[in-house]
Specification:
It is built from 22 helices and 20 strands. α7 packs across α9 (219-228).
């Protein structure tokens, strides 16, 4: 909550601006510092927060031991929201020449990362946060530390000379009296700012006005940036530092946002000012637990329940028994239907069914597929399905739209699989990439596929170190793992069969659902709940839910299929 001092500050500020006028920066670059480990547990909430806060850029702390896929999905989605992502790293010890190799190793990692991925997945910049003033050496021999820090920054600049990304740096506001080694007439902060495309000034204060307010403390840096024709971002923090005057922890998000709006006005009179930076998403979430700024996100999460769904094969059922399907879904508490499409039908065949499902809180995903859809000569079937759904959605009312497109392709039953499995896999991969591209061209359509549980040890053609199941999971928005077993726990059970896929999806920031079978299978009764019946299936799925509920990627389950479920034993 805003206190009286904050309100008075805002009132006086706005009156001053009304009387004397102001200038405002034309190109904002508002920024969040995000710790990379949060991508695994909080990526969805993070992206919503960035959109809500109108963030233009993210400083993403990185771990070079992570695979490209760990960061790639987030970078891609951030870019889709118009957000730049800058690889961020730094340690106080990186200010010493004996640790220069660590700084350069990080630089090399970013180079290798960007070289190994496509453009939408590349980092837009490199941001350094090196703070050697936390080292004991700083107090023993500050001049030597400054000289070594300068050497390391120079080496860094040489290392990134051939890298086409923006480079930036964070520095505190209190470097005014520190001179540059070998250039005594130049303040060290000015030398640092000259080395980078933009600099974030860590103006850690909770007020604008007075000699210890944000504006006063950064005036020298702003003037220097004007001379250097470089850009400045003003950084604030929400961390509970124990020093109330340096953080907005006590004041909270609302008060901080009000002050940041005024920073835009006050500091906007310098052309070099381009935006603000918040440290960090972690502290933002902690502050938002008080309910100040996160109510909307909490409401959204309540509107997105665990997936409980089924498959509706035979497209004529949507025409002949739409009300029965919806009623069954309501009785079973379903909120997700994969529905096979007949693309030869006029659009109005589906409007009533989808509309009634939507009213009942049920998402309908258009489904197609067959073993041969993995072959290159059948790619046109995917195009026909996706084109049909996209065109249908363009003319449909809001409650008549499909939520996604789902493929069920199982080419391992084809003779071609035994003849040349790798060729089939390569063709399947090409068709899946085409499918994802087609779906991504539409707004608000989710891509998903079914995948057998036994691809753990199948290498991906062209990338043998990546299991094929991991490659597939990374392509689509969610994957339904066909963990066809009639028991949850133990070796060979549902949990065991799906664990690797859940782990892959957690690392990739992707979503997984699990599907189980209700169809009779006389030769392998352990893969279906046909004999056990509905009650036992529900009991085993409850165990699966309880086990996987702590995994960020796990979204729920579906039963295969509607017709078998309606006639199953109790």
């Amino acid at each position: 909550m805003m206190n009286q001092r904050s309100l008075l500050t805002i009132f006086v500020t706005m009156m001053s601006l009304f009387l004397f006028g102001f200038s405002e920066s034309s190109e904002k670059r508002d920024t969040f510092l995000v710790h990379g480990e949060e991508l695994k547990s909080s990526q969805s909430h993070l992206l919503k927060t960035l959109e809500k806060q109108k963030i233009d850029m993210v400083y993403l702390t990185t771990d070079p031991t992570k695979k490209e896929e760990y960061y790639g999905d987030f970078i891609r989605k951030a870019h889709e929201q118009g957000i730049e992502v800058h690889a961020t790293a730094g340690d106080p010890s990186w200010g010493l020449t004996k640790n220069q190799d660590q700084l350069l190793a990080f630089t090399d990692w970013v180079k290798e990362f960007n070289a190994s991925v496509d453009e939408p997945t590349q980092f837009d910049g490199i941001h350094l946060k090196i703070q050697p003033f936390y080292l004991p050496e700083w107090y023993d021999d500050r001049d030597t530390v400054i000289a070594e820090w300068k050497q390391n920054v120079t080496a860094f600049k040489e290392a990134v000379a051939d890298l086409d990304v923006e480079v930036s740096n964070s520095i505190p506001f209190w470097f005014d009296d520190i001179k540059t080694p070998g250039q005594e007439e130049t303040p060290f902060y000015e030398w640092l700012m000259a080395q980078f495309d933009h600099t974030t000034i860590l103006a850690y204060r909770d007020t604008l006005e007075g000699e210890n307010g944000i504006v006063s403390l950064i005036e020298d840096e702003m003037d220097a940036a004007e001379r250097l024709n470089t850009e400045i971002i003003v950084g604030v923090t929400l961390e509970n530092t124990g020093q109330d005057h340096v953080t907005f922890f006590e004041e909270g998000i609302v008060d901080m946002n009000m002050h940041l709006a005024l920073v835009d006005i006050y500091v906007g009179r310098w052309d070099s000012y381009v935006g603000t930076s918040i440290d960090s998403y972690t502290y933002w979430r902690q502050s938002s637990q008080d309910g100040e700024e996160d109510v909307e996100d909490e409401e959204e999460s309540e509107e997105q329940p665990f997936i409980r769904g089924t498959y509706v094969w035979h497209p004529e059922l949507v025409r002949t028994e739409p009300d029965q399907i919806i009623q069954f879904a309501k009785e079973q508490g379903l909120n997700h239907l994969y529905t096979q499409m007949d693309v030869s039908q006029p659009y109005d065949v589906y409007t009533y069914f989808v509309s009634e499902a939507t009213k009942a809180g049920i998402e309908v995903h258009a489904m197609g597929g067959g073993p041969k859809w993995a072959l290159k000569e059948k790619k046109y079937r995917i195009t026909r399905l996706t084109d049909y759904v996209k065109n249908y959605n363009e003319q449909a009312a809001a409650d008549e739209k499909f939520a996604g497109v789902h493929l069920d392709i199982e080419p391992y039953v084809l003779p071609e699989w035994d003849e040349d499995k790798e060729a089939v896999l390569r063709s399947w991969m090409t068709n899946l990439e085409h499918f994802v591209q087609e779906v991504e061209e539409a707004n608000n359509l989710e891509s998903s596929v079914d995948l057998a549980m036994w691809f753990d040890d199948e290498p991906t053609p062209g990338n043998p170190d990546t299991p094929f199941n991991e490659w597939v999971i990374n392509q689509v928005d969610h994957t339904s793992i066909m963990a066809f077993r009639d028991f949850a726990e133990g070796h060979g059970g549902i949990i065991d069969m799906a664990q690797n896929e859940i782990d892959h999806a957690d690392n990739l920031g992707k979503e997984i659902t699990i599907s189980v079978e209700m169809k009779q299978n006389e030769t392998s009764d352990h893969i279906t709940f046909f004999d056990e019946g509905k009650a036992e299936m529900e009991s085993q799925l409850a165990i699966v839910n309880d086990y996987f509920k702590e995994f960020e990627s796990y979204e729920g389950y579906s039963v295969h299929a509607y017709k078998y479920w309606t006639t199953a034993n109790n």
